Amino acid sequence: MAYAFPNTLSLKPFSPSLTNKSLRSPSILRSALREWKEYEEAVKRKDLAGALRFLKSMDDEQLRIEHGNGDSTRSRLAELGFSWLERDWEVLDTCLNADDMKLVANAYGFLKDRGFLPNFGKFRNIVLEGQRNVTPTALKASTGLEVSKFAPKKWGVSGSSRLALVGLLGGISFLLSQGIDVRPNLAAILGLAFVDSVFLGGSCLAQISSYWPPTRRRILVHEAGHLLAAYLMGCPIRGVILDPIVAMQMGIQGQAGTQFWDEKMANDLAEGRLDGMAFDRYCMVLFAGIAAEALVYGEAEGGENDENLFRSTCVLLQPPLSVAEMSNQARWSLLQSYNLLKWHKHALRAAVKALESGSSTSVVIRRIEESMATKRDE
Q: How high is the pLDDT of residue 347?
C-alpha cells in the first residue's frame, strides 16, 4: 500500500479575496514551503517522531500568533490557496515503521484533538453493554448464522480454496489425458506440500492462494474488519500488511495482518495481569476479522491465527479461563464485533474499497470518517 507523494504542490485557483500584500510577497510563500518541506520529508522517511513534532510545532506557532500579531505558516499558505489541513492526515502513514506504540497513540490523539478523527474510540465502552453469557443458540438468534459459520476453515476444504484445489486436480487430469506425464513433478510438489503442512502449518500454500482474486477479496474484508473495529474501539492502528511476503518478513502469521495496540492491555500485561474490560476490547478487535467475513459472505474462512492468538492470551489471565469460559468469551466477542460491524457496514465497505485500491492507512481511515459522516447526515 505505497502512498505516492506528489513532487509538485497543487494550487487552488486564486481567489479575488487574496490581498495585494500576499501576491506581492513570494518570499512568504517560499519560506512557508521550506518549513513544510520538513514535514513532507519526514512522511517520506516514515519518521513518525519527526512528522508529529513538526505538526505540534505548527499548532504551537498558531497559538502564539492568535495571542499576538503576525501570520502563521498555515495561514500564509492558506491565504495563497494551499490546503495543508489535508496533509496532517499523512502522519498516520508514518506509524508502520514506528517501534514506540505510545508515539503511534500520540499521533491518533493529536489528530483526534484537532477534530480529524471524531469516531476514533467512539465505541470504546461498548464492552460494558449486553449479556455476557452467549450460547450457540443465542449467537444464531442474533446473527442468523450457526456457530460453525464462524469457524476458520482449513485450506482446501473451504469455498474458494476448494475451488482452487478442484481446478488444480482438474488441470493435472487434463495433462495426463493429453499424454503429458506430470507425476514426477507432482510427487515433488506433494512432498513440499506435506512438509509445509507439518512444519509450517500450511502457511506457504496459504500465501500462494492469497494472490487468487476471490481469496484476496476475503483477506481485504477480514483485515478491514480488524481495522474498523480497532478504530471505533480506540485502539491505535500501526498499519495493515496485505503483502504475504512482507507479512512473513515482519513475523506475522498468516497471509496478512493488522497491527493495533491497546495501552491499558499492554500495561496490564507488563504487570502480569489482565483487566477484564481491556481483555474484552482486545478480543473484539481480534475476532472482528472473522465477524466481517461472516457478515459479508455468510461464513468465515480465515482467522485461524486469530483464534490461536486468543487461546495463547487466555492463559495469561489469572486465573486462566477454562475451556467452557474460553468458548463463551469467543462467542461473546464474535457477537459484539458482528453487531458493531453490522451497525457500520457502510464504513466497512468504505474500508474494503480503500484497501482494495491500495490506499495508505491515512486514506483508509479518512474514508471511514467520510462514510460515517455521510451516513449521519442522511
A: 96
